[in-house]
From TrEMBL, chain B:
Keyword Cytoplasm carried by entry: no
Chain positions covered by the region annotation Disordered: 1-24
SMART domains reported for this sequence: AAA
Descriptive protein name: ABC transporter ATP-binding protein
Top-level taxon: Bacteria
Origin species: Pelagibius litoralis
Positions of the ABC transporter domain: 25-260, 277-524
GO cellular component annotations of the record: plasma membrane
Xref: PROSITE patterns: ABC_TRANSPORTER_1, ABC_TRANSPORTER_2
Membrane topology (UniProt): Peripheral membrane protein
Length: 324, 532
C-alpha cells in the first residue's frame, strides 16, 4: 500500500517536470491566440530556444546568459512570425509551419558547424544548468509520514524553471483578466475593429502579444536543454509544442484549465514510463507502444466530444485589414 | 493615453448659447481618391453646433468615405477640417476621439463576449490595472445613463443584448470618451420601428444637452423626422444643403438621384384570381429543436401581392426557403397549383423551378449569385440546364451571352457587359440581374425576399415597378421585407410574422406603420380577423 502511494507520489513529481515546458508553451500560445494570431510555431520557437540556451551555456558556462539567449532567439522568431502575419497579413499556419521546419533544420546545421558533434551541443556542467533546489528542512522532514514526502519530494527538489512555470499561470491569468493590456488583448482577438475604432493600434497590440509568446517559449526551450537535460539533442522538443497547443485548446484559451490539461498530459507521460513492463493479469505485460500512444489517443477522444465545443477567439487566424 | 473625459471641464466654462459660435464641424474642399475613383470631390460641409445634421445620398455617393475621413480611417488628399472653429488634423481614430468626435458604426464595434462596462472603457481605461478602471467606468457610466436616459445593464454581455441596446452601448462609448460630436452611420438599418423611435428620442435628448449629431442615412423618412439640416451627396459631391423644415422628401429624392423619382407606386386595384399557393399548418423545426416556422397557414392568389412583415429573424427567411424547396418541411405542408407538398416529400429547388416558382433570395450574395462568376453566368444560375443554354456536351456560350445582354437591356443593368465579374456590379445592378433571371420566365409564383436591401433609390423604383407589373400580368407574389415602407406600398395584403407564427393580417389600405410595428413586436391589441 505504502509502495503504491510512493509510486503515485513519484509519478506526480515526474508530472511536474514533464508538464513544465507544456505549461510555459501553452501560456505562450494563449497570449498569441488571444490576440488573434494562430501560433503553430510554438514547437519551433521552443526548439530554437533550447539550442540557443544549450549553445550559450556550453560556451559561457552561465545558465542565466543561456536563459537570456534562449528567450532572445525565441522572441526573434515570434517577431518574424508577427512580421509575416501581422504586418504582411500572411497565412498564420503557413508561417508557423515554416518556422518549425526552418528551426528543425537550422539547429542541426548550426550545431554541426559550431560543435561538430552531429548536431548535438556539448553537455554542460551543473554550474551552467538550472539544477534542483532543495527547500530548507526538506531532509529533516522527509521521514515524517505523509507531510514529509509531500514536502521533500513534491514541493522541494525542482529546478527554478519549474517553479517559474507554475507562477506564470496565475500571472498570465492576472495579466489577461485584470490589466488594461489583458482587456485589449482579449478584445483584439475577438473584434479587432472594436479596438481600432477605440483608437488603439491593432498591430501594436498583436506585436506585444508576440513578444510575450516568445519570452515564454524561450523559457520552455531553455528548460528542456539545460534544466531537464544537459545538452541540446536534435528535435528534442519531440512534438511538445503541439501538445501544448492542444492543451491550450482543451483549456478553451483560459490559463488555469490549460494548465490542468498540461498536467494531465504530463501525468499520462509520467505513468507511461512507470507502467512499462508492468504485468497485468490475463493480458500479460502492457505493450510499451500502447502506453506511449495513450496521451495522443486521449487527445483525440477528448477533442472528439468530452470537453464540449472549444470556441476560439473569433478573430483568431484572420489578418486584420482596415475596412473602408 | 489622453484623459477620456475632458467633457465636463470643457463644457462648464463655455457660454451655453454663444450667438456667433463657430460651426461644430467645418469641412473645406475635402478631396479623396482611391486609385482612379474620386470618392469625394471638393466636399464642403458646415454643421451647426447642437444640431442634428443629416447627410443623405445613395450607396456609393461618398457619405461613408467622408465620415471615415472625419473619424480618421482615411486621410483626405486635400482639404481642411475645422472642429469647433479650430483647424484639426485627424490621422487616426485616436485623433478623432481627442477632437471630441465619436462614431456609431453601421456594424457595431463591440466585443461580444465582454461586458458592457468593459466594452465602454476599452481604449479609455483610467489605468493599467483594471480594478480601479472598472470602478471609475461604472460610476461614469451611471452618470451618463442618468443624464441621457440611456438605460443599459453594465454587466450584461454585449453580444447577448438586443441590437437596440447594443446601439446604446455604442452611443455610451462615444459619450464616455467625451464626444461632443456624434456621427451615426445608417443607424436604423437593424432596428425595429419601435427601436428606431427610441433612438430618435435619444438623439433628441442628446441634442438638448448640446451634442452635435451627424446622421448618415439613405432613408428620406428619417431625415424628415429628426434632422434640423440636411446635406445631399451624389457621385462624391456635395450637391445641396437645406434646412429640413424648408425641403420635402420629393425634393431630396430628386437631388439624390439627379432626376425625378416616384416615391409612391401607382398601382391598380388587384385582380385576384385563382389560388396559386395554399399553405396549411406549415412548420419547420431547426436542428436545435427550435420551431422556426410554426403552423403557418395562408393563401396567395394569382394577381395579388402578399407581403410578410416582421423583424428580421422571425421565420420569414425560413418560410421562403421552405416554399422554394431549399429546406425540408417538418410538418404540415402547402399546395401549389393543386400539387401538394408535405413532410417527407423531398423538395428540391430545381423541381420547384420547373413548377414555375421563381425565387429572389433574401441574400443575393450568399444564395442569389456567385460573386466570382461573369454576369452572364450569374444570370442563368439555376436555369443552366435549360436546352436554350446548353448544347449536347458544352454550354452554348453565345446563347448565354446574348441572353444576358437581352436581360441587361430589359432591366437596365449597368454597365451592360455580360463578361464583367458579378462582384463588380453595384448592389442595385446585381439585384436587377437576379430579378431579370427570375422574372423573365413568367413565373406563376414569385417569391421575393428583401428585394431592395442595399439598393439605390433609383433602382428601388425600378424593382418595385417590375414586381407590380408581374402581379398585373397574373403572377402570385409573396414578398418578404423588413422595410415597412416597401411592404406597405407594394402589398395588397399584409401578414405579420413573429417568432415563426403569423400573428396578424391587415389589408394594405388599413395598414400603418404604428399598427404594423406593434404587431411585429407582438404587442398589438387583439384584432378581429387575425389569421393563424
Amino acid at each position: 500500500m505504502d509502495d503504491l502511494l510512493f509510486n503515485l507520489l513519484l509519478s506526480v513529481d515526474a508530472t511536474f517536470r514533464v508538464a513544465t515546458p507544456l505549461i510555459l508553451c501553452a501560456m505562450a500560445g494563449l497570449f498569441s491566440e488571444r490576440s488573434g494570431v494562430v501560433d503553430i510555431g510554438l514547437e519551433g520557437k521552443m526548439l530554437a530556444a533550447a539550442f540557443a540556451a544549450a549553445a550559450v551555456a556550453a560556451v559561457t558556462g552561465s545558465a542565466w546568459l543561456a536563459l537570456a539567449a534562449g528567450m532572445a532567439v525565441s522572441v526573434g522568431l515570434a517577431l518574424l512570425h508577427g512580421f509575416a502575419c501581422i504586418t504582411h497579413r500572411g497565412d498564420q499556419v503557413v508561417s508557423g509551419v515554416a518556422i518549425n521546419i526552418l528551426v528543425s533544420g537550422l539547429t542541426v546545421v548550426l550545431g554541426i558547424a559550431w560543435f561538430a558533434r552531429g548536431g548535438q551541443t556539448p553537455s554542460v556542467s551543473n554550474e551552467a544548468r538550472f539544477t534542483p533546489i532543495t527547500w530548507p528542512g526538506a531532509e529533516a522532514v522527509a521521514d515524517v509520514p505523509i507531510i514529509g514526502p509531500l514536502y521533500s519530494e513534491l514541493l522541494s527538489g525542482h529546478n527554478l524553471l519549474v517553479y517559474v512555470a507554475f507562477l506564470i499561470v496565475p500571472l498570465t491569468w492576472w495579466v489577461v483578466y485584470r490589466t488594461r493590456f489583458g482587456l485589449r488583448l482579449r478584445a483584439v482577438g475577438e473584434n479587432p475593429n472594436a479596438v481600432d475604432t477605440a483608437g488603439i493600434s491593432v498591430s501594436g497590440l498583436r506585436y506585444r502579444a508576440m513578444i510575450c509568446c516568445g519570452l515564454l517559449c524561450g523559457i520552455a526551450g531553455t528548460y528542456l536543454s539545460i534544466a531537464q537535460n544537459a545538452a541540446f539533442v536534435r528535435d528534442m522538443t519531440a512534438g511538445q509544442g503541439y501538445i501544448a497547443l492542444a492543451a491550450m485548446i482543451f483549456g478553451k484559451w483560459r490559463p488555469v484549465p490549460a494548465m490542468l490539461a498540461c498536467l494531465m498530459f504530463g501525468f499520462l507521460d509520467a505513468i507511461a514510463i512507470r507502467l512499462q513492463g508492468v504485468e497485468v493479469p490475463v493480458i500479460g505485460p502492457i505493450p510499451v507502444q500502447l502506453i506511449q500512444a495513450l496521451p495522443y489517443v486521449l487527445t483525440v477522444v477528448l477533442l472528439a466530444g468530452f470537453i464540449g465545443r472549444a470556441v476560439a477567439p473569433k478573430a483568431s487566424g484572420i489578418p486584420y485589414v482596415k475596412e473602408r | 493615453m489622453s484623459d477620456p473625459r475632458p467633457r465636463q471641464q470643457d463644457g462648464a466654462d463655455r457660454p451655453a448659447s454663444e450667438a456667433q459660435s463657430p460651426p461644430a464641424i467645418e469641412l473645406r474642399d475635402i478631396d479623396k481618391s482611391f486609385g482612379p475613383v474620386r470618392a469625394n470631390k471638393n466636399v464642403c460641409l458646415s454643421v451647426r453646433p447642437g444640431a442634428i445634421h443629416g447627410i443623405i445620398g445613395e450607396n456609393g455617393a461618398g457619405k461613408s468615405t467622408l465620415m471615415s475621413i472625419l473619424y480618421g480611417f482615411y486621410e483626405a488628399d486635400r482639404g481642411e477640417i475645422l472642429i469647433g472653429g479650430k483647424q484639426t488634423r485627424i490621422r487616426s481614430s485616436r485623433d478623432a476621439i481627442a477632437a471630441g468626435i465619436g462614431m456609431v458604426h453601421q456594424h457595431f464595434m463591440l466585443v461580444d463576449n465582454m461586458s458592457v462596462v468593459e466594452n465602454i472603457m476599452l481604449g479609455a481605461e483610467s489605468g493599467a490595472i483594471l480594478t480601479s478602471s472598472v470602478a471609475a467606468a461604472r460610476a461614469e457610466l451611471e452618470r451618463l445613463e442618468r443624464d441621457y436616459n440611456l438605460d443599459v445593464d453594465p454587466d450584461a454581455l454585449a453580444g447577448e443584448l438586443p441590437v437596440g441596446q447594443q446601439q446604446r452601448v455604442e452611443i455610451l462609448k462615444a459619450l464616455y470618451r467625451g464626444a461632443e460630436i456624434l456621427i451615426l452611420d445608417e443607424p436604423t438599418g437593424v432596428l425595429t420601428p419601435q427601436e428606431t423611435e427610441q433612438l430618435f428620442r435619444i438623439l433628441d435628448s442628446l441634442r438638448k444637452q448640446g451634442v452635435t449629431i451627424v446622421l448618415i442615412t439613405h432613408k428620406l423618412r428619417e431625415i424628415m423626422a429628426v434632422t434640423d439640416d440636411v446635406s445631399v451627396m451624389r457621385g462624391g459631391e456635395m450637391i445641396a444643403h437645406r434646412s429640413t423644415a424648408e425641403t420635402s422628401k420629393e425634393e431630396l429624392a430628386e437631388l439624390m438621384v439627379g432626376r425625378k423619382v416616384l416615391l409612391s407606386i401607382d398601382k391598380q386595384a388587384p385582380q385576384a384570381g385563382a389560388t396559386v399557393l395554399a399553405v396549411e399548418d406549415l412548420s419547420f423545426v431547426d436542428r436545435a429543436g427550435v420551431p422556426r416556422v410554426d403552423k403557418v397557414s395562408f393563401a396567395v392568389r394569382a394577381g395579388e401581392i402578399v407581403g410578410i412583415a416582421g423583424v428580421s429573424g422571425n421565420g420569414q427567411s425560413e418560410l421562403l426557403e421552405l416554399l422554394s424547396g431549399i429546406k425540408p418541411i417538418t410538418s404540415g405542408g402547402f399546395s401549389l397549383m393543386g400539387e401538394r407538398f408535405s413532410a417527407g416529400r423531398s423538395l428540391d429547388p430545381a423541381a420547384m423551378r420547373d413548377l414555375k416558382v421563381a425565387h429572389v433570395p433574401e441574400d443575393r450574395l450568399r444564395s442569389g449569385l456567385v460573386r466570382t462568376f461573369a454576369a452572364e453566368e450569374s444570370a442563368i444560375l439555376g436555369y443552366h440546364r435549360d436546352p436554350a443554354y446548353t448544347g449536347r456536351i458544352f454550354m452554348d456560350r453565345d446563347a448565354i451571352q446574348q441572353d444576358c445582354a437581352r436581360k441587361m437591356a430589359d432591366f437596365d443593368v449597368r454597365p451592360q457587359n455580360p463578361n464583367l465579374k458579378t462582384a463588380n456590379f453595384s448592389g442595385g445592378n446585381q439585384q436587377k440581374l437576379v430579378l431579370a433571371r427570375e422574372i423573365s420566365r413568367d413565373p406563376r409564383l414569385l417569391l421575393v425576399g428583401q428585394p431592395t436591401r442595399g439598393v439605390d433609390i433609383g433602382a428601388i423604383e425600378f424593382i418595385h415597378r417590375n414586381i407590380v407589373s408581374m402581379r398585373d400580368a397574373g403572377s402570385a407574389v409573396l414578398l418578404v421585407s423588413v422595410e415597412l415602407d416597401e411592404i406597405m406600398s407594394l402589398s395588397d395584403r399584409i401578414l405579420v410574422m413573429f417568432e415563426g407564427r403569423i400573428v396578424g393580417e391587415v389589408p394594405a389600405h388599413e395598414a400603418n406603420e404604428r399598427l404594423l410595428g406593434l404587431m411585429m413586436a407582438n404587442a398589438a391589441p387583439e384584432r378581429s380577423g387575425v389569421a393563424g
